[in-house]
Each structure stands twice: as C-alpha cells, then as structure tokens.
Automatic annotation (TrEMBL):
CDD domains: ZnMc_astacin_like (cd04280). Residues 38-238 form the Peptidase M12A domain. Zn(2+) binds at H137, H141, H147. Its cofactor is Zn(2+). This is Metalloendopeptidase. Its EC number is 3.4.24.-. The active site is at E138. InterPro entries: Astacin-like_dom, MetalloPept_cat_dom_sf, Peptidase_M12A, Peptidase_Metallo. Coiled coil: none annotated. GO terms for biological process: proteolysis. Binds 1 zinc ion per subunit. It comes from Parnassius mnemosyne (clouded apollo). It comes from the Eukaryota. Pfam families: Astacin (PF01400).
C-alpha cells in the first residue's frame, strides 16, 4: 500500500495546477481573471442532465482498480443528484484510462469538438492514484471543480511560502481572479478533498502552504468533505436545468 504522500505526488504533475486539463477558453479565462471562487460557473461546462457518461479503458486496470473507480462514482452519486452511466454508441464521454503517468482530468464537461482543442476529455488514473479520495478528487475536476487553495480569498486562510516552491512551478499557486469559478457561498474549507497538501510542489521538503488557523490539516484524500458535498449539490442539483 502506498502512502498518502506518494499518492498525492501523482496529482502534482506537469498539467495546470498539477492535475487539470483545461480547454483553451478555460485557460484564458482563468489566467486573465478578475474575481475568483472554486467551482465552475459556466453552465455549458456542466454535464447535461446531471449525468456523467464514461468509458473505462478496462485493459488499463485490474479488477480491484475498476472497483475503486466504481466506488468513487457511487459515493458521489449517493451524495448528490449526479448520475454516472457507461457510454452508448458515439456519444460524448469521459475516457477513464491509466496509460499515462499521474492523476489528471479535464475540468467540467469538455466535448471533443469544443474549440477544435487537441485534448479530448479524459480522466487518467495511473497505478499510484488508487486511493478513494484521489479518484473522487479527479472526478470532481471532471464535474467542474477547481482547487480549493486558489480561491479569491485564500490569503485570509493560508499563507503561500513562495521561497519553498520549485522554480517554474509558482503558477500553480496563482489565485483565480474571475467569475469563471464560484464558491457557491460556502466558506473556505481546509478539509476539502480539493485542497493541495502542505508540501505541494516543494523544492526542499518544507511547507509551501501554511494554514492560518491552528490545528487544521490540509490535503486529505479520504473523500468529500461536507462543504464539497454542499457545493456539488448547489452546482448541479439546486439550479434549474
């Protein structure tokens, strides 16, 4: 069994903020932002009919890994109105694969034809990603969630230790400054499954994120927090469809 630390390392790859594949329009909106939060606002990026259509590349996984993927789907479905179902014919679906290194996903519904982008919708889970909370984390990206610590008011809750961040990785700690994302009126959540761990992208083993509240831990990958569940339901289940 790998450790929590090693499983989180697989999220901290070469993608945007380590594990997010952004379409061109998303990337421009985030980088040019003016006011931010942490769940995707853009309704067109939400899955139609509150249903995630998926295709599991079963040759990439063993039976136990498929069970972990299915358990993560069931957990999300049981705590929201979200449904998951296998792909039928040629309809758009997220391809759940494990052939690349790391844990990463597109953010929100990202049809293959959108903007003629080269990146098709995928959720990649390599061998080191198979912790329940890690799979849930990536699936929440697929549903439209960004990372907790990049929210517009994060400096009221955490301190970023810039001198400990690997050279060239500083962009992973930028705050979103746009209405591209929203917190749905839910308070900052240290316990969110979408929060970076305290040593994310550290160049020296020292902390890169320090909570400003005493006796809290960040970066858990056990599963959704209560706030994560509330946000997910506000995003998909309370709005008119």
């Amino acid at each position: 069994m790998f450790s929590l630390g090693s499983s989180l390392d697989f999220e901290l790859g070469e993608y945007f903020e380590g594990d997010m594949l952004l379409m061109s329009r998303q990337k421009k909106a985030v980088l040019a932002a003016e006011k931010n939060r942490n769940g995707l606002i853009d309704g067109v990026k939400r899955w139609p009919e509150r249903t995630v259509v998926y295709q599991i590349e079963e040759d990439d996984f063993d039976e136990e890994q498929v069970k972990i993927i299915e358990a993560a789907m069931e957990d999300i479905a049981n705590k929201s109105c979200i449904k998951f179902r296998p792909k039928e014919k040629d309809e758009h679906a997220v391809l759940i694969k494990g052939s690349a290194d790391g844990c990463f996903s597109n953010v929100g519904y990202s049809s293959a034809s959108e903007e003629n982008d080269e990146v098709k919708q995928v959720l990649n889970l390599s061998k080191g990603c198979f912790r329940h909370g890690t799979v849930v984390h990536e699936m929440l990206h697929t549903l439209g969630f960004y990372h907790m610590q990049s929210t517009y008011n994060r400096d009221e809750f955490v301190k970023i230790i810039w001198e400990n961040i690997k050279a060239g990785k500083e962009y992973n700690f930028a705050k979103y400054t746009n209405d591209t994302v929203t917190d749905f009126g839910v308070a900052y959540d240290y316990n969110s499954v979408m929060h970076y761990p305290e040593k994310a992208f550290s160049k020296n083993g020292n902390k890169t994120i320090i909570p400003l509240q005493d006796d809290v831990k960040i970066g858990q990958r056990v599963g959704m927090s209560e706030s994560d569940i509330i946000k997910l339901n506000k995003m998909y289940c309370e709005s008119e469809r």
